[in-house]
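Letters spell out the chain; backbone shape is given numerically. Both lines appear below:
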Amino acid sequence: MHDDISSAFFDLEMRQTTAAFLKQNLSPYCPMSLYETQYYSACNISPRQLPSKPFKKARNSRCWVEAKMILTHLSKLEVQYYNVRRDEIARFMFECLTTMKVNKEYARILVDALVNVDLNKEFGEALYRLLLYVADLLDESCNGSAKPKILKSNDVTAWVDGMHTLGPVIGKFCMDMAIKKAKLHGIGIIITKNSNYLGKCTWFTKKAMQKGLIGLAFSNTAHALCPTRAKQSYLGWNPVALSAPASKRINNFSLEVKSTALSLRQVVMCINRGQELPMNCAYDGNAALTTDPKDALYEGCMLPLGGLEETGGYKGYALAIVVEIMCGIFGDSLYGDSIKRALERGREPTNLGHCFIAINPNHFAGNFKKRMDDFAKSIRKIKPINANEPVIYPSSEVDKYMPSCVTVKNRLRYRLVDLMAAYQLSCILNVPPLVLK
């Protein structure tokens, strides 16, 4: 399909074009000095007009990921951000995906899943994830139009083949089915195989919660977690999510936890800020405790939730195994270190496994939502250590205590390095670039 793609992705002409684009389109209040001195000047780049036609020499799809890694390494010198309109991010992602022959309905689901998740984050990930999806689509390890296939089904369970289409599309298909079964029979349990990166699990569990149900979601991922007493990674970040409704929205419960001591986002944030990791969270390449986030991410591995064995890390390790049982073992997807990272698997499909559960509380004791309200109120009444830092109940109120990338006029914050990569993507796919002003 893309045999004409060459290997020269990260070349001087592309960097020059990208630099010119950013210099012409970024606000003067967003300085470019760091990139000029540390990156662009090394390429002898000077401001110039954009070419009349987009630069669109074909390139090797796997180099997308490699180029992204290089750009990310450069961005670690210091982080600069820029705020982009939410609707413009959605427009750009949708056009990139449909240019890659992704089903329009699927493209909308993916954009909704990724962009909405960026609403309450210090910086957004949608553009970064878009690059990885495009790489998989180019490699044909992901199918942008395949329809998930039901392999087995009864009143309360189903086993689904995701057919290697987009992860959020598979997830929505499965959670919608779980909701229908739970409405009729009290519970719905759907297991899927042959999936891709799912995104944030609470995006799916909240769909059940909005229907008055309890929603749960599990997903296995590429290996990053070092089992207790081991010296190398074997299990993934392996998230678990649960959402439960209450009578009042502020009392809705919604939580997602990784099986690792820190999430990937937390590690990347430490790199971006030049901060150290907390102790007892990661190993370096020699299986020694480290607080260097780069050592942990690129050479080492993450400790399970709880850290070392003596601080309860075996519980996080066991939680990761629970996720593997619910996803990989149940659904016959890959599991353990057979799930390769992006740069390890080449053109092989990811074949992740997910589990989605919806439970109808009306099939049990009545007044579930009222008790949820009472429970949330009782937690908020607990006396805090610091009066300015109240005890937090995991609900929408948590957003008040999170650094948000949402600014005035409904803009989302993204790193300049992500905007650089997005512009290169627009040139190669011949899609109108992001409007930054």
Summary: Confidence is low (pLDDT under 50) at residues 1-12, 27-78. The first helix runs from residue 12 to 25. The chain is about 40% helix and 15% strand.
